[in-house]
Design goal:
Elements lengths: L1 H14 L31 E6 L8 E2 L5 E2 L1 H13 L2 E6 L2 H5 L2 H4 L5 E2 L7 H6 L1 E2 L4 E10 L14 E5 L3 H13 L2 E5 L2 H10 L4 E5 H10 L3 E13 L2 E2 L4 H17 L1 H10 L6
Parallel strand pairs: 1-4, 1-5, 8-9, 8-10
Antiparallel strand pairs: 2-3, 5-12, 6-12, 7-10, 7-11
Helix pairs in contact: 1-8, 2-9, 2-10
Length: about 270
């Protein structure tokens, strides 16, 4: 889809402004639940335990073989390889990741779930350098008269719980007179549009364009410039893991790995 390609190329501009931290040696990763002199603390020895929230294609979702795949998954594999360990993925509620509850409970080391960096979330967790840019987008059934939020008066708008899309919808509900219906995940809200049980859905543009590509009876009719950036998050005190993640991202940009992953999932090269 031409618009998806345009979106992807624009989004990569921010991703390619990644800044780096000091070099990190993967040979000194800490054992389970403990810190070492030079390595980050991990909840399980020999693993980078990653919390995500499925499904959010193309960032993280299950393929036909029931394997969790996606853009975020591939980038976390790069981080794990840098640390000399393997990635293990945990599917959990999105709000538990953004609030930092999963780190306090030692359920995972890092969150990789297309998480928008904002001030509220930065109070609870540390964030990596930005790796992707996003806006909000409005999905409707193909042929719908709804073209913008202003067309939703008296209608129902699907939102995903604990997301910036929900925040944006809530902020504008009184002005435009719609009712927001909350869903636990992106796919359920988008499927409700397809089924005709809601009039529209709002979520990040990357996943909405991808959904419309796979489901041509739906279409994205509007994007809202919310100026969002994704980052990987972790416990505020795990500064060594933060340094390792940022270093892996910087290296991936420099050696072409980031571009290869980007092209795999979005169909275009990340611009130089």
């Amino acid at each position: 889809m031409k618009r998806l390609l345009a979106l992807s190329a624009a989004a990569s501009a921010l991703a390619l402004t990644l800044t780096g931290c000091a070099n990190y040696s993967s040979s000194t990763t800490a054992a389970s639940g403990s810190a070492s002199a030079t390595g980050p603390t991990l909840v399980a020895a020999g693993k980078l335990t990653v919390c995500t929230h499925l499904a959010y294609k193309p960032f993280q979702y299950k393929d036909d073989s029931n394997k969790v795949v996606g853009f975020d998954v591939d980038l976390m594999d790069v981080v794990a390889k840098k640390l000399g360990i393997t990635q293990e993925i945990v599917d959990i509620e999105f709000g538990q990741i953004t609030s930092g509850a999963v780190f306090a409970a030692k359920k995972c080391d890092v969150g990789a779930a297309a998480i928008t960096i904002n001030d509220k979330r930065k109070e609870a967790t540390a964030f990596s350098d930005p790796y992707f840019a996003a806006t909000q987008a409005l999905l409707v059934k193909t042929g719908s008269s709804v073209k913008d939020l202003s067309d939703l008066k008296g209608k129902v708008l699907a939102v995903q719980t604990d997301t910036t899309g929900q925040d944006y919808a809530t902020k504008n509900a009184a002005q435009y007179g719609y009712t927001a219906k909350v869903f636990d995940d992106m796919t359920s809200g988008a499927n409700a549009v397809l089924a005709g049980t809601v009039d529209a859905a709002i979520n990040d543009n990357g996943v909405m364009f991808d959904y419309a590509k796979d489901n041509p009876k739906t279409t994205v009719v509007k994007e809202f410039n919310t100026d969002e950036s994704y980052g990987f998050n972790m416990s505020l005190d795990n500064t060594k893991l933060l340094a390792a993640v940022n270093d892996a991202l910087k290296t991936a940009k420099a050696d072409g790995t980031y571009n290869t992953i980007y092209k795999k999932w979005f169909g275009v090269d990340a611009p130089k």
